[in-house]
Amino acid sequence: MGSLKKIALILLLIFLLPAIFFSAYEISSLSQDEEVINQIYQNQLDAILYSANQYSDDVLNGWISKIQLGLEESKGTDTIPGKINQLLMLNPALTMIFIGDTLSQEESSIIFSLEDSLTGPGIAQELSGLLKEENRKINQLIVYQRSGFQKVEPLSFRIPRIKDFIILVFILEDHFKEKYVCGLVIEPNLFIEELLGPRLQVIAKDQFVLSAYKKDNDNPIYLTSTNNSISFNSVALTKDFWLLPDYYLGISTMGNSIQDLVNERTSTNLVLILVLDAVLILGVWLVFANVKREVQLAQNKSDFVSNVSHEIRTPLALIGMFAETLELGRVKSEKKKQEYYSIIHKETNRLTGIVNRILNFSRMEANKKILKIEPVDLDDTIREVLSTYEFHLQNKGFTYELRTNLESKVYADQQALVEVIVNLMDNAIKYSPTKKHIEIMTGRQNNYGFLVVKDHGVGISKHDQKHVFDKFYRVSSGDLAKSKGTGLGLSLVKEIMENHQGKIDLKSEPGKGSSFYLYFPISNVKERAYA
Ligand code: ADP
To answer: Ligand 1 atom 16: the closest Cα is on which residue?
Structure first.
C-alpha cells in the first residue's frame, strides 16, 4: 500500500494543506478587518459628536461677543442694554446674564433677566456667594484671560431655587482693561432642544439618530428622529457635552449599523469558508476512496494473472509429461498406461474447470450470461451435486452431513445453482486443512429458500469478510496464500445470486470455520433472460 500512502500524502499536500492555511489566514484576517472597520466607524461617530459640541461652543462664543458689546453700552445705566435684551429675547434657554466685579468679589453688580422671578431680591447675594465658593475656578479663568484665552467654565455649585439651571462663567474685559466675571444661567433642556436641536437634525440627516441624555436618566431628553416607525439601533457611542456637565450626547445608526453589517459579513464569510473546507475534504476523501479501490483492483488483477498462470502450469506440465512418456512408448504395462491416461484426463478436467470459471466470470462481467430462471427443487439439486461430488470428498478425506428441510421449489437457473454450490463446496474443501467435515442444510425463511454450506476450516477475519466477494480478491496472509485459486469464485457466486434477486450472507470466525448462506426467492419471480 506504499502507493496509496503516496497518493494520500499528495492529496493532503495539494488540496488539504493549502485549504487549511488559507482558511486559517482568512479567519484571522476577517477579525482584523472587522477591528479596522470598527475603528474607522467609531472615529466617524466620534467626529459627528465632536461637531455637535463644536457647534454649541460657537453659539456660546456668539453670545459672549454680544455681551461684550452690551457691556460697553450698559456703562452707568440701570436698564438692560439693547444687545443683551435682544440676546435674552431670542434665546429662551438663556434665562439670566450677570456681570460681577472680579477684584472686589463683592455682590454681583449687574443682573440681566427677562424674568422678574429670577432677578428678585437676594439673587445678587446668592450669586456672589457662589462666585466666592468657586473662587479658585474664577482666578484660573482670569489667568487664562490674561494670556489671551477666553475659557468658559460651568460652575459645579448650584443656587437652590434655580438648581436645574447650569451656570457658565467667563472673564470679560472692557475698554479700560477692567475685568468682570460674567455668568450665563442656562436652562439645559431648552438649550439642547431649541439651539442645538436644529443643528443636530442637519448633522444626523437620514443616516443617524442623535440623542441627548441627562446623566442620571436613560430616557433621552432629545432625539433627532421623532418618527416612531423608524427603528434605530442602540446607542453606538456617547460623548459628554463640553458645556453641560450633567448631559451627554449619543449617536445611533438607522437600520443596519456598520457593525451589524461587518458582523454579518464576517459570519457569512466564516460559514462559507467552513462549507468550502467541508466540501473539499469530502471531495478529497471521495477521490482517495476511489483511487484506493482502483489500486486494490489493479493489485488483485495482477495477483490473478500470476495465480491463474500458476494454476494452469501444473496440470499442463503433468499432461505434457505423461503424454510424452506414452508417446515415446516407454510405458509397457497396461495398468501403468491406464493410470497415466486417468491422470491426463483428471488434469484436463481441472484445466477445463479453470477455463470455464474464467469464461463464466467474463460472461457475467459482460452481462452476457443468460439465466433461465424456473422453479427448481433445491433439495434435489443439492443431493445430485453431492452424489457426483461424494467420491471427490472421500478422496480428500472429508465427511459430510446433509439436512434438507425445504419442501417448496425456488426460482433459479439450474446450471447456475449447481455452479454456485460447487464453488462453495470447493472452497470448503480448499480452506479446511485439518477438521475435514462439511455440513449442508436447506430450509425456508420468509419468502426465501436457503442453502448453507458450513465448514470447520480456517475461517475468515472480519476485515477479509468485507472483501472476499470482490473480484480477484484473495486472502493474502498465512498458509491460505499457498492454496490455489483465482479469486473469482465468490465474486461469481455473488453476481449469480444478485441476478437471481437472491441474497448471500457469510458468518465466519477465524480458526473455527465459515458458513455461507444463499437465499433464493420462493415467491413468484418472473422468468427472465439476462442478455
Ligand atoms: P479463490 O479462488 O481464492 O478461492 P474465491 O473468490 O472463491 O477465490 O475466495 C476468495 C477468498 O475467500 C479466498 O482466497 C479465501 O481466502 C477466502 N475463502 C473463500 N471461501 C472460504 C472458506 N470456506 N473458508 C475460508 N476462507 C475462504
So the answer is: 475
pLDDT at 442: 94
> What pLDDT is attached to residue 459?
94
Say how far apart CA 51 and CA 53 lie, in whole Å.
Answer: 5
Tell me what the mean pLDDT of segment 346-354 comes to: 87
252-292 pLDDT, tens digit per residue, is 877 666 667 778 888 888 899 899 989 999 999 999 999 98
Question: pLDDT tens digits, residue range 130-170?
Answer: 888 888 888 899 899 888 888 898 887 777 777 788 999 99
Does 526 have pLDDT greater than 50?
no
The atom of ligand 1 lying closest to the CA of 432 is 24
- Residue 384: CB atoms within 10 A of its CB come to 14
pTM above 0.85, yes or no: no
What ranges do the domains of the chain cover? 94-186, 261-366, 368-521
Instruction: Read off the DSSP letter of residue 401.
Output: E
In the block, cell 457466486 appears at 493
Q: Check pocket membership of 432 for ligand 1, CB cut-off 6 A.
A: no
Q: Which CATH number fits domain 261-366: 3.40.50.300, 1.10.10.10, 1.10.287.130, 3.30.360.10?
A: 1.10.287.130
**Residue 303 Cβ < 6 Å to ligand 1:** no
pLDDT value at residue 232 = 57
Q: What is the CATH code for 368-521?
A: 3.30.565.10
Distance CA 311, CA 306 (A): 9
The C-alpha cell that represents 256 in the structure block: 443596519
Cα of 302 from ligand 1 centre, angstroms: 17
Q: Is the CB of 458 under 6 A from ligand 1?
A: yes
d(CA 43, CA 233): 18
Ligand 1 near 504 CB (within 6 A): no
User: Rg for the chain (alpha carbons), in Å?
Assistant: 53
Kindly give the distance from the C-alpha atom of residue 513 to the centroid of ligand 1, in angstroms, as a whole number.
12
- Report the alpha-carbon distance of residue 484 to residue 307 in Å, rounded: 7
With beta carbons less than 8 A apart as the criterion, state whether 438 and 453 touch: yes
Q: Rounded to whole angstroms, how far apart are CA atoms 210 and 252?
A: 7
Tell me if 427 CB under 6 Å of ligand 1: yes
Cα–Cα distance measured from residue 165 to residue 132, given in angstroms and rounded to the nearest whole number: 19
Least confident of 164-173, 338-347, 367-376, 508-517: 367-376
**C-alpha dihedral over 315, 316, 321, 323, to 10 degrees?**
100
Q: Which atom of ligand 1 approaches the CA of 453 most closely? A: 23
User: Is 280 buried (19+), middle (13-18) or exposed (0-12) by CB count in 10 A?
Assistant: middle
